[in-house]
């Protein structure tokens, strides 16, 4: 008994002729040659068949009732652009057959024909299609490889998933793409989905069946009704092709990528599976790295917040100061249009900006201002902060903001006396945020200043103490920022 999948993989030929004898004899001989053959009695019937199924070659008579060969030839590319058309004609209409070739027909056959001649033309057409498909596959491979490089370089899980989905739709012509990843409970959940030409799909994958196949290293490339076993619920549209590629790292199944085609012109095969398996292997490694990076980032954030709280506890009057400075600095960095990565460094630097106070042996809670001697000790805290962070390599990006947030635009700051744009932008941003919070918070030696007074002071010191552009952006946006923050707090 023939395997349905093997029958699906045979070259497919549609014979169109109004004479039943011609249809039957071509179907019999081509079937014996190993082709899958369907027949239609005219052009209209042929279009119905082409709408429902994919065919590699159409052999069509030139003159038929309802719709002839020329009309059919012109309609086929709109339905099935990769299908080749061979025109059959009598001796008296050779010129018309040649005209048909000018309009896109692959070749023509003169009636009465010899079966060897027909089989030779069909075989040549199929070979041409295979060569074109291989060339296309090579172009796809080059494109896929370049995208796989981008996937490997990314440490953002969402960016990786979005790139894979986009690739599957654009390069593989998938109508539906879903990416499934393991969850914390040991199961699998859909983490990303993307639609190509379809607005909805409705089918739900059968997780247990797919996991069983992928764990046993069984490939999933299925067509038509053979794909239904992989779905727990029936999709809204008939499936033409299903391709599932595992995401594995050292034999551990992280998840899978599922591609669905509901268009009979797009049919996934073993070549597609091999190509996308390369993407799957790279994506799995990238996803694992991205997850580890997320965990490290979480630990990093917890460490920074823990240290910031420890610093703030040294002075009851500055409790929450580091968090507020980070909040204002982040707002200002966004206002200045900095990238997401730089904004993150600004936030982390602001949280850690006073870590050097750990090295200052001072009574920061005493009433009144510091003596000159105490102030000179206090001025060393930015340098102490640099010294504390320097041995910790992953904290190096925070050093400019920690060490230089007390520098002034006019060069009269400390510890290095830098001026203007010699001062890193991160430090200039933190300088504004730090000063604003210091003015609007209670201190041992004075009560908090009103917001409008603090803003006026920042405006007065723009171009001397503060970067004028950063100061102006802060002044322009702080009222709206504070109002939005108040709304969020309820």
Describe the model.
By secondary structure, the chain is α/β, with parallel strands linked by helices. The protein has 3 domains: 4-132, Rossmann fold; 154-291, 2-Layer Sandwich (Beta-Lactamase); 313-489, Hypothetical protein af1432. It is 51% helix and 14% strand. It is built from 17 helices and 12 strands. The strands form 3 sheets. A 5-stranded parallel sheet has the order 2-1-3-4-5, with helices on both faces. Strand 1 (12-16), helix 2 (20-32) and strand 2 form a beta-alpha-beta unit. Helix 3 (43-52) runs parallel beside helix 4, helix 10 packs across helix 15 and helix 10 (321-335) crosses helix 17. It is elongated and about 115 Å long. The N and C termini lie far apart (71 Å). The relative contact order is 0.06.
Strand order of the largest sheet: 2-1-3-4-5
Q: What would you say the CATH architecture of the largest domain is?
A: Orthogonal Bundle
- Percentage of helical residues? 40-55%
Report the span from N to C terminus.
71 Å
| Morphology call | elongated
Q: What count of structural domains?
A: 3
Q: Which topology of the largest domain does CATH recognise?
A: Hypothetical protein af1432
CATH class descriptor of the largest domain: Mainly Alpha
Structural class: alpha/beta
- Topology pattern, helix = H, strand = E: HEHEHEHEHEHHEEEHEEEEHHHHHHHHH
- Enumerate how many helices there are, as a single number: 17
């Amino acid at each position: 008994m023939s395997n349905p999948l093997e029958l699906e993989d045979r070259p497919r030929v549609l014979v169109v002729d109004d004479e039943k004898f011609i249809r039957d004899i071509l179907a019999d001989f081509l079937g014996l040659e190993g082709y899958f053959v369907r027949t239609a009695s005219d052009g209209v019937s042929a279009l119905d068949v082409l709408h429902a199924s994919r065919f590699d070659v159409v052999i069509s008579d030139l003159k038929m009732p309802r719709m002839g060969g020329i009309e059919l030839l012109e309609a086929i590319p709109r339905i099935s652009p990769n299908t080749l058309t061979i025109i059959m004609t009598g001796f008296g209409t050779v010129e018309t057959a040649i005209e048909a070739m000018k309009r896109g027909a692959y070749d023509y056959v003169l009636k009465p024909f010899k079966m060897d001649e027909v089989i030779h033309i069909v075989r040549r057409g199929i070979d041409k299609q295979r060569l074109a498909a291989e060339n296309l596959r090579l172009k796809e491979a080059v494109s896929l490889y370049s995208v796989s490089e981008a996937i490997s370089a990314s440490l953002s899980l969402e960016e990786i998933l979005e790139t894979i989905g986009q690739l599957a739709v654009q390069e593989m012509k998938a109508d539906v793409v879903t990416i499934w990843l393991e969850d914390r409970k040991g199961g699998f959940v859909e983490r990303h989905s993307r639609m190509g030409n379809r607005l909805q799909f409705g089918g739900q994958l059968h997780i247990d069946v797919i996991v069983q196949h992928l764990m046993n290293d069984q490939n999933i490339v299925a067509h038509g009704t053979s794909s239904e076993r992989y779905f727990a619920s029936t999709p809204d549209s008939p499936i033409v092709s299903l391709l599932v590629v595992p995401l594995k790292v050292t034999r551990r199944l992280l998840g899978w990528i599922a591609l669905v085609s509901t268009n009979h012109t797009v049919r996934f095969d073993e070549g597609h599976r091999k190509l996308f398996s390369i993407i799957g292997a790279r994506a799995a490694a990238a996803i694992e790295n991205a997850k580890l990076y997320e965990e490290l980032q979480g630990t990093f954030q917890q460490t920074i917040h823990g240290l910031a709280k420890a610093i703030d506890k040294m002075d009851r009057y500055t409790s929450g100061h580091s968090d507020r400075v980070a909040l204002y600095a982040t707002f200002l960095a966004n206002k200045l249009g900095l990238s997401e990565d730089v904004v993150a460094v600004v936030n982390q630097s602001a949280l850690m900006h006073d870590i050097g106070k750990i090295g200052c042996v001072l009574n920061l809670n005493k009433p009144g201002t510091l003596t000159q001697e105490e102030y000179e000790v206090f001025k060393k805290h930015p340098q102490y902060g640099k010294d504390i962070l320097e041995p910790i390599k992953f904290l190096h990006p925070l050093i400019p903001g920690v060490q230089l947030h007390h520098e002034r635009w006019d060069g009269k700051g400390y510890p290095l006396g830098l001026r203007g744009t010699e001062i890193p932008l991160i430090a200039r941003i933190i300088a504004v945020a730090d000063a604003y919070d210091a003015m609007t918070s209670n201190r041992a030696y004075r009560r908090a200043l009103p917001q409008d007074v603090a803003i006026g002071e920042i405006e007065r010191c723009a171009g001397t103490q503060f970067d004028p552009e950063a100061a102006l952006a802060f002044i322009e946006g702080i009222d709206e920022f504070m109002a939005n923050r108040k709304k969020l707090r309820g």
